[in-house]
Amino acid sequence: MTEEADRIEEEMEGKELDVEAEEGGEDEEGEDGVYDPIEETEKFFEAELADLEGLSAPRKLKTIISSRKRVENDIKLMANRIRHLHLEEEKAQKKIDTTKTRANDILDLKERNREAARRRELERKQAEEELRRERQVQ
């Protein structure tokens, strides 16, 4: 039982190292007010490890396993939220595209209507001019 607890603890330490490696040059919360999930994760693991001090090996194992399950569940929830956000973004982009298309269609229709009005006005002026010439000839 102790060996398995040690193995899980080593795995979790490896995960912490991976998190630290991904940190890169990201800003921490507080410096510019941006939420930093990596910093939050580190704080979480530090608190969890502090809670393990003084516990028996089986208790540590149980705590580590439950912590891991919570973290995995949180990861699933975050992935689901991200997926939903992507879907919402796609819907919004489709609405934007539809609106742009409709706006362009309306602008095209207005231009055709203006052109038709110009043609009618030109035809009316030509008809008036022709009528005026006919009256002059008489």
Structure description:
- The protein has helices at residues 2-23, 37-52, 57-137.
- The model is unreliable at 16-29 (pLDDT under 50).
- The radius of gyration is 36 Å and the shape is rod-shaped.
- With 138 residues, the protein is mostly helical.
- The chain starts with a helix and ends with a helix.
- It contains three helices and no strands.
- Helices cover 86% and strands 0% of the residues.
- The protein has one domain (2-137).
- Residues 1-35, 114-138 are annotated as: Disordered.
Oligomer: single chain
Order of secondary-structure elements = HHH
What is the CA-based Rg, rounded? 36 Å
- Residues in helix, %: over 70%
Overall mean pLDDT stands at: 81
Question: What's the total count of β strands?
Answer: 0
Class derived from helix and strand content: mainly alpha
Note the overall shape.
rod-shaped
As a percent range, the share of strand residues is under 5%
**Span of the ends, CA to CA:** 120 Å
Q: Count the helices. How many? A: 3
Give the biggest sheet: none
What are the salient characteristics of this protein?
rod-shaped, 138 residues, 86% helix, mainly alpha, 3 helices
Helix and strand layout, with pairings?
Blueprint (H helix, E strand, L loop, with lengths): L1 H22 L13 H16 L4 H81 L1
Helix pairs in contact: 1-2, 1-3
Task: Briefly say what this structure is.
The protein has 138 residues and is mostly helical.
